[in-house]
What does this fold into?
Amino acid sequence: MWPRFSVAMFRFYFLVLFPLLFESVFPISFFLSVNSRKCLREEIHKDVLVTGDYDVSEQPNTKTNLKITDSSGHILYSKEDASKGKFAFTTEDYDMFEVCFESKSPMGTGRVQDQLVNLDMKHGVEAKNYEEIAKVEKLKPLEVELRRLEDLSESIVNDFAYMKKREEEMRDTNESTNARVLYFSIFSMCCLIGLATWQVFYLRRFFKAKKLIE
It folds into this structure.
C-alpha cells in the first residue's frame, strides 16, 4: 500500500499538471496541393525523444516525399513516396526542426485533387511509451502515472531553467548594447565638440586674415 503522503502528492500533481499532459498531442491535418511543398517548424530542446505518425491520402500518379531536417540542413528522417508510417529521432541540441511534405505529379496541377495529410508529432514525455516501461519494470498503474508526472515535472523544470538562461543571455546582451551605445554617444559628443572648437578657431583666423576683427 502506498504511504499517505505519496497519494497526496500524486493527487496534487495530477490536479495541477494533468492538463499539461494533453498539450500538443492533437494531430495536425492540412491539404497538400499537387507539385507543392508545405513545412511545419518547431523548437525542441536538447536530448529529447521525438516521435510521429503520418498518414497521406493516396492520389493516382502522385508521389509525396517526407523530409525532417534541422536548422543546419542535416536530414534526420527521409521517406520517398510516403503514404503512412512512423518516425523517431533524438535531438542532439536545442534547435529549430522542420517537417516538410512535398507532392510531385507529372500530370500537372489542374487534374489532381489535393491530398489530406495527418501528422501526429510528439516529443518529450508525450513520446515515451509508458506501457512498455510498465511491462519492463513491472510497474503498477499508479506507479506508471507517478513516473509520467515525474518526467513531466522534470520537463517543466528544464523548460523554466532554459527560459531563465535565455533571459540572462538577453539581459547580458542588452547591457552590452547599452554600454556600446553609451560609449558611442560619448565619442560622438567629443567629435562634435572638437569639430565646433576647430570651426571657431578657423573662423577666427579667417576673420583676422581679412582684418574683420582684431
User: Anything to note?
Assistant: The longest helix spans residues 141-209. The two ends are 107 Å apart (CA to CA). The beta strands are 28-32, 37-44, 49-56, 63-69, 75-79, 84-90, 95-104, 115-123. Confidence is low (pLDDT under 50) at residues 1-24.
